[in-house]
Design goal:
- The chain has a seven-stranded parallel β-sheet, sandwiched between helices. Strands 16-21-20-17-19-18 form a six-stranded parallel β-sheet, with helices on both faces. A five-stranded mixed barrel has the order 2-4-5-7-6.
- 38% of the residues lie in helices and 18% in strands.
- It is globular and about 100 Å long.
- By secondary structure, it is α/β, with parallel strands linked by helices.
- Among the domains are: 1-45 and 144-175; 47-142, Beta Barrel (OB fold (Dihydrolipoamide Acetyltransferase, E2P)); 246-276 and 292-414, P-loop containing nucleotide triphosphate hydrolases (Rossmann fold, 3-Layer(aba) Sandwich), CATH 3.40.50; 462-601, P-loop containing nucleotide triphosphate hydrolases (Rossmann fold).
- It contains 22 helices and 21 strands.
- Helix 6 crosses helix 21 (640-655).
- The structure holds adenosine-5'-diphosphate and magnesium ion (MG).
- Magnesium ion is lined by residues 293-294, 388, 542.
- GO terms for molecular function: 3'-5' DNA helicase activity; ATP binding; DNA binding; hydrolase activity.
- It catalyses: ATP + H2O = ADP + phosphate + H(+); Couples ATP hydrolysis with the unwinding of duplex DNA by translocating in the 3'-5' direction.
Amino acid sequence: MTLDLYALPVTHVSGVKGKKAEELLALGISSVGQLLDYYPFRYEDYTLRDLTQAKDGDRITVQGTIAGVPQVQMYGRTKSRMLLKIVVDNLFVTAVWFNRHFLKDKLTAGTDIILTGKWDQKRLHLTVSESEFPGARTSQTGTLQPVYSVSGSMTQKWLRQVMKQAVLQFGEMIPEVLPALLLRKYDMLPRKQAIVLLHLPGNMEQGQRARKRMVYEELFLFQLKMQAYRALNHSRADGVAHPLDLPGVRAFVRSLPFTLTESQKNVLAEILQDLQQPHSMNRLLQGDVGAGKTVVAAAALFAVVKAGYQGALMVPTEILAEQHKRSLDRLFEPYGIQTALLTGSLTDRQRRDLLASLQMGMIDVVVGTHALIQEDVFFRRLGLVVTDEQHRFGVQQRSILRHKGMNPDIMTMTATPIPRTLAITAFGDMDVSTLRELPKGRKPIKTYAVTHSMMERVMGFIGREVAEGRQAYVICPLIEESEKLDVQNAIDVHAQLQHAFPQYKVGLLHGRMTPAEKDDTMREFSEGRVHVLVSTTVIEVGVDVPNATLMIIYDADRFGLSQLHQLRGRVGRGEHQSYCVLIADPKNEVGKERLKAMTDTNDGFEIARRDLELRGPGDFFGTKQSGLPEFRLADMVTDFETMEQARDDAAELVRRSDFWTEAAFDSLREYLRREHILSGDLLD
Ligand code: ADP
Ligand code: MG
């Protein structure tokens, strides 16, 4: 029986008690195991260096001989600056101490001294942060010292000491978690050795090797959860095995006003295949804006309805719900499929009636906002939920459905392509289908970045496009955090444009309008009765009006890159050449990068990659519902290759039948149980 270090109070490490133990607790450390898991975020290198090789600004440790008398300048009673000449590697150097004048008496000429500090090559100054005499009992010289994040009255020095003590007392007892086959595969350090070296590395190489092992472990365990979840889901037979009428689906596809792209065909085949399986589908459909995700969803919904089930399409806004309902009606009408719209603007009575029809199975496909699958909504035989332009369908929503006795197939469509880096992290538990091409005949959108001084030409541009029968969007200036001012802006711009173009109809869309008003405007725009649509960002997602060819965005430098790409994606949806004009303040340096990316490329995957680079993973999905895990050591961007390896290894492992039974994998299965994957809790 091994000792569980996580059950052992941290006070078992000698030297940890009282106030110090409390301060560790504030860092989330209450057990020995947690202490050992508190890794340094970098190392300080006290290896002796040759000063003549050092570069300006380096933090270095050098040894020299004192060649003068300390010169002290006092500022007030405690603040001081002390200068001292030192000969280092045949150079005359000035060592500078701040507020350390009390050292003065120890600094006698002719004595050797070791100094650590920042090197100013121009002035031959070394600003000293630490110093010691050669041979000192607690010498750090020649070592690598870990740097931890500390708080309260805790010092770096104290924590280093405690960590060293913990390693001495308990290092031998750190259990292995990775199976031997993986340790062998990558020639990795055993866990106990890696942890010891992370805290007490002999040199950088050892520190790196230890880090590498622990990064792998962290990513592997994360991926194991994902892959085990996926494998278990696939092996469960508690979903709907849709008895599909494949010839019927083929006929539906043939009846579409266009032929599907190869990508759409492949993706649809993957989905149909999944729908027939007895486990419940958990699939992500991604593709660039305009790649044609909606029609793929429509075909899947059609297939499910023909198999005798109901479908639901969940979208983030009422405008979109309304639009999707219209396009589905157009496609489904010849087949007598009943659709309905469930949004917040129904009257109580309408809502009651609708819910009753849903429950009785008189409605085949319901389109609506998030509330669709919640609360008092019951289906007779729900077979497929599609969510559009929305964050992932969460475990929680799945469990709401389960509690109602439903376990439908789930398909999530993303608003923007997701860089591969993030996809295998955030969506590792899902099967992914990707639309890789746009429908044929689309002309790439031409994008221009201009300044406010060119407004007149921009107006001329709007006039010409509308005169040719096209339509234009104008997205209004963005005032951070102030919906009220955004609305005012939209109202002003609308008035200006209507004044400039009295012969055309200029529409207005903003967040303060009622859903019915918004729908009216949208309908007029999509039917071509409104020529120019002025809008705040409520327009952003999913709107599809192929005749619109011009997208003007005010204050483009204030929008995020993915959002700009989404907005641009509202045009370029038909046969006509389309344009995107980004009006921006040339002085905004941050915005410049984004504008450059926009004018450089139309490729959503490339845009996503750059967006990730500019914003970092946390912000990519927006902070709130990122769905991204937080790693202790790993960085999901720079450690991406390791993440991929870990994913492949985890996937391979859970496919082995002995993984679920053999003693060699006990600790991993135990881990899955602790994480509520194995018992199935996640799905219940
Ligand atoms: P997104 O992937 O951005 O949601 P949509 O589904 O809105 O894209 O499709 C964009 C436009 O392309 C729509 O007008 C749609 O009818 C059209 N479309 C979809 N597939 C094809 C195709 N295979 N050929 C031609 N047009 C298509
Ligand atoms: Mg769409």
